[in-house]
Design brief:
Blueprint: H1 4-47, E1 56-59, E2 65-70, E3 73-78, E4 84-85, E5 90-91, E6 96-97, H2 98-106, E7 120-124, E8 129-135, H3 140-149, E9 155-161, H4 167-177, H5 182-192, H6 206-217, E10 225-228, E11 233-235, H7 240-252
Parallel strand pairs: 8-9
Antiparallel strand pairs: 1-2, 2-3, 3-4, 5-6, 7-9, 8-10, 10-11
Length: 253
């Protein structure tokens, strides 16, 4: 007859031995991961003094390859920091750009936290729907999207000025921001090519500096950059029908 008591005892003894073996193995793996991170940090610091501070080191799906996060920048390294890899890590199975997906998460925009007071605001119709555009006053594509936005109904457009195309862009942004009627001056310049009046010397243009810092934080490096309420982005001068579709998608979501 089968002895269930003896069987249970043997089973308990087996799992006890397994647990005892697993504990040091788990500690060894954790210790190994910490050793890898320490090696990467030390070797890169010793050999590449101009490398930005590494905020986070994590394993990738490739054995022996680690992700190095520096702010919102991503590099890769072997487990000893002997090799540094710059570029996109691409998953051929899922056809996914892993590096881009990671950076997109790091630079995601929380629309509710955007400093809308630093934008030139244009309300059309009820203004119930909202969209943000990062623009340079000398950007031809920004002027194109501004014309397209005029046909979009019931939307509030928040234009964040980021003068990235040179000194003239800085001066024009200053004049537009300091205009008595910012929205009117903005449309007059972007649509009709009518320059804004020269800004007074005492005008506070700190918002433009904050806008530049905001753009850097979210890796907005070209204009126009369009951001919708759900945080989704559309780089470039997207046409009015695409803007409408994306606004509708946000409302459904």
């Amino acid at each position: 007859m089968f002895n269930t008591t003896a069987s249970a005892a043997r089973s308990a003894a087996f799992w006890a031995r397994t647990a005892a073996l697993a504990l040091p193995l788990g500690l060894a793996l954790a210790s190994g991961a910490q050793a890898d991170e320490a090696s990467i940090r030390k070797n890169l610091a010793d050999r590449m003094g101009n490398l930005p501070r590494i905020d986070e080191i994590s394993k990738t799906a490739i054995p022996g390859i680690y992700e190095l996060r520096m702010g919102t920048d991503i590099l890769y390294s072997d487990e000893d920091g002997n090799f540094l890899i710059e570029g996109a890590l691409f998953d051929t199975r899922t056809k996914t750009d892993i590096t881009k997906a990671r950076i997109d998460r790091l630079t995601a925009v929380d629309f509710a936290k955007l400093p809308l007071k630093d934008a030139i605001v244009i309300k059309q119709g009820s203004g119930a729907r909202k969209v943000v555009v990062f623009s340079d006053p000398n950007c031809g594509y920004c002027k194109k999207i501004e014309r397209d936005l005029m046909s979009v109904k019931d939307v509030t457009v928040y234009n964040f000025l980021i003068p990235i195309l040179g000194a003239d862009s800085v001066m024009k942004s200053r004049d537009l921001w300091c205009a008595r009627d910012q929205a009117k001056a903005w449309r007059a310049w972007m649509i009709d090519g009518q320059p804004a009046a020269k800004a007074a010397e005492k005008c506070d243009t700190a918002a433009l500096e904050r806008n530049m810092a905001l753009a850097r934080k979210h890796k907005i490096q070209a204009t126009p950059a369009v951001i919708f309420e759900d945080g989704s982005r559309a780089p470039g001068a997207i046409p009015a029908d695409q803007i409408e579709r994306m606004l509708a998608a946000v409302k459904k979501g």
